[in-house]
Write a structure and sequence with these properties.
The protein has helices spanning 2-5, 13-18, 22-54, 60-84, 87-108, 151-159, 162-193, 197-226, 228-247, 253-259, 262-265, 268-278, 285-314, 326-343, 354-362, and strands at residues 116-117, 120-121. By secondary structure, it is mainly alpha-helical. It has a single domain (1-363), classed as MFS general substrate transporter like domains (Growth Hormone, Chain: A, Up-down Bundle). The longest helix has 33 residues, at 22-54. Its main location: membrane. One of its GO terms (cellular component) is membrane. InterPro entries: MFS (IPR011701), MFS_trans_sf (IPR036259).
């Protein structure tokens, strides 16, 4: 699944690696917008779907956590490179690494759709279904991956499982809070404690290093005894505490201390993706992950429209009452809604079980 769909990817940073004049910047911005519409959101979805195709249900939460940990490690390396390299060198290194990733993908990664025989998509058979009656040459199966899901398909997918729809609600409120923190926290810290770009970089580095260690080494140890559902709830609860600390911060060191909570906060996204993955069949992993990413993207669009003006209002002299961190407190309330909703997710039977997958492979 992954290699075929990433052929449209293009390293737009190569434009700024050549020159950073106004014309080159506009060319970069236009091409970046076009490629982001096709590839940026889909890369993560396809990576998760590719991983789900090759990992059993019981190991997916750990695998998703490790994948997130590797992404966090890459974020730390990129932040360090941007801080110590010149601007021109940074874009050159980014272009080289991007091309290296494409070459690695084309050489080492193979198509992983598990239900294919001779290029024809095979259905996932339910228990007791007659295999002989299945015609592998049915023409309608060749278009399964060629049509764009409609709004009705997405709604049907959301209704396919109570756990899936509940996970979508959790994803919306969690992403709404995450988008609110991204759009408001820097503005808040700069106005409240006069943070500069170096201090923001330090916070991102601390959070990235802690997240890398936690997702690579701690989360895999906790998945089996605790379960992805409880890890999701724990991660959301600690994220709620982090937002509370930000909102009532009384000194500049409080945000640094709160960043240490990232060691538990990072449990939430991989656990949520694991729950979603287990509620969809092998042929719908990309669609399911894409649906959750779409819900998250919608929340990220809405978040700045709500929280940025709210932050500006309570940091101004026209605030209704004195509470500079009121917008962050509202973000914490949003996280509490996500946490409460996560408690209602029940462990529904997986629709992508190994048994079904093995049946499909035997056809």
């Amino acid at each position: 699944m992954l290699p075929r769909h990433l052929r449209l990817w293009f390293p737009t940073s190569s434009i700024l690696a050549c020159s950073r004049t106004t014309n080159y910047f506009y060319a970069y911005y236009a091409l970046r917008t076009l490629t982001a519409m096709v590839c940026e959101g889909s890369i993560n979805c396809l990576a998760l779907a590719y991983l789900a195709d090759n990992i059993s249900d019981g190991q997916r939460a750990s695998a998703f956590g490790i994948l997130s940990g590797i992404s966090s490690a890459a974020f730390v390396c990129a932040t360090l490179a941007a801080r110590f390299l010149s601007t021109g060198s940074t874009f050159q290194v980014a272009t080289f690494v991007s091309m290296l990733a494409v070459v690695y993908m084309r050489i080492f990664l193979e198509e992983s759709i598990p239900d294919q025989v001779d290029g024809m998509t095979q259905p996932i058979l339910k228990e007791g279904e007659d295999v002989i009656q299945k015609d592998v040459n049915a023409p309608e199966r060749t278009t399964v991956f060629k049509k764009i899901p409609s709004l009705g398909d997405i709604i049907c997918l959301l209704k396919s499982s109570p756990s899936f729809s509940q996970a979508a609600v959790v994803a919306f409120f969690n992403s709404l809070a995450e988008g609110g923190m991204i759009s408001s926290s820097m503005y808040y810290l700069k106005a409240r404690f006069h943070f500069n770009k170096n201090q923001f970089a330090d916070l991102m580095l601390i959070a990235g290093i802690v997240a890398t260690i936690s997702q690579l080494f701690i989360m895999p140890l906790l998945v089996s005894p605790i379960g992805d559902g409880r890890l999701l709830s724990i991660g959301l609860l600690v994220t709620f505490v982090n937002a509370i600390l930000y909102s009532i911060a009384w000194s500049a060191w409080v945000p640094y201390a709160a960043t240490a909570l990232s060691i538990v906060m990072v449990f939430a996204p991989p656990s949520l993706r694991s729950i979603v993955s287990k509620q969809t069949g092998a042929r719908e992993q990309g669609k399911a992950q894409g649906c959750i990413s779409g819900v998250s993207s919608l929340a990220n669009i809405i978040a700045p429209l709500i929280f940025s003006p709210l932050t500006a209002l309570f940091l101004s002299e026209e605030a209704p009452f004195h509470f500079p961190g009121f917008s962050i407190m509202c973000i914490a309330i949003t996280l509490m809604i996500a946490f409460v909703q996560s408690l209602t997710i029940r462990s529904a039977p997986s629709t992508s079980s190994d048994k079904n997958s093995s049946n499909a492979m035997e056809v």
